[in-house]
Amino acid sequence: MGVEVKVEGLSKSFGAQTIWRDVTLTLPTGEISVLLGPSGTGKSVFLKSLVGLLKPEQGSVLIDGVDVCDCSESKLYEVRKLFGVLFQDGALFGSMNLYDNIAFPLREHTRKGESQVREVVLEKMEMVGLIGAEDKLPGEISGGMRKRAGLARALVLDPEILLFDEPDSGLDPVRTAYLNQLIVDLNAQIDATCLIVTHDINTARTVPDNIGMLFRRNLAMYGPREMLLTSTEPVVEQFLNGRKQGPIGMSEEKDAGQAAAELAELQDESRVPHIIPQLEATAGLPERAAVRRRQNRVMANLGSLPPEAQREIVNSLSAKDREYYGIREGAAPVPAASMSGSLPTADVARVPSQQLAPQHQQPAQHQQQAAPQHQQAPAHQPGPANQARPANQPRPANQPGPANQPGPANQPGPANQSGPGQFPPNPAQDGGARPGPTPRPRPRPHPGEPPFSSGHQPDEEPVRARRRWFGRRKGGEQ
User: Fold this and answer.
1) CA 158 to CA 142: how far, in whole Å?
2) pLDDT value at position 384?
3) What percent of the chain stands above pLDDT 90?
4) Please, where in the chain does CATH 3.40.50.300 lie?
5) CATH architecture of 5-224
6) Which of 124, 133, 264, 343 is most buried, with most CB under 10 Å away?
């Protein structure tokens, strides 16, 4: 079972630079929380303050009844045993191989024998996909592998509080998805309290139970995921949608006038965002108790939210949840057309294959209807090569003669029938050989010029031969 982390009035600065001030929040027991914010807003500093690596100037961090900001070193040492921390760069010992790095907390804080240590270490390495890399040094592996090794080390003590500092950095999207599923599965198994610092929007939308955001040295918003995902707060909506229009600029704070103008452009399009379903635990694992605890808080405060957000939250509930909270089906309907980002309820892109006509094939009825249109070929559509033209019928303008007149490509006509706008009979269909292409006539030389083979070597180019012949003629050789 996890432990509640209660933060009250926390402020931190480095010299004259204030990182954040008066931060107050509670990480509920056994729930997954995510802390968002632009780069440089002090998210990693907040994690280090929770574990006691940095001392804030004001405020308190209460963990299991102990104030981490104001306690003795011995108590802080005991409180830290409750934590498992995945640092942003892995924080591995460069002189130790991966096995020893992961086994370090067990050897430092427990009295397990080497056989027990090996069993736990190999279990965690298999969990993060590092089996076979036990003897490699941190400098011999990629950044993503170092990140996964740091996660395995954070899990060996089965902590009650898990802190993840940008766990997705250095990982490809597929392994990020695996890592997200691993975090959810761990929470389902040990019910640990988790806090994730991330910039990945998909992780923020699908993994946590609670979402918070740091902006301009303050905690802009914090609460259950349903309240943050339906929030129309400009900074929250801008960050979760990953767009440039809004208060956040390249240097964190954008000019107020520019931000106001951009928000005015988006005002007509502003709607309550759609709630993406939360990632569930893998089949066979126990159901996450944190989900029901969070939903109870949301439903208890549902009346304080705007009507649009209420409808979207009720709309996102499953049939089982509606029955649990006594909500009748259709009590708060939301038209799909007015829902921003909603998906179609049917697979409209799927078309039965039997309804599709084969490619380059037209029904017989369509060919019969189309045949009269080709009785007189227009100026831009010539007829076949073997089609005879009546003597008294003038040739349309810009229409090539029968000698150089190809038939229309990829348009087969009826068998053994040659009509206007169609190919002549194809001998290949009757078992005969397909006639080859008409040979291109070679240009005849001028009567006064010799053939190309006269007066030059066999491997000499014709143009050079002609130049030599004209040169001899000019010089009086002939």
Assistant:
1) 26
2) 46
3) 33
4) 5-224
5) 3-Layer(aba) Sandwich (3.40)
6) 124
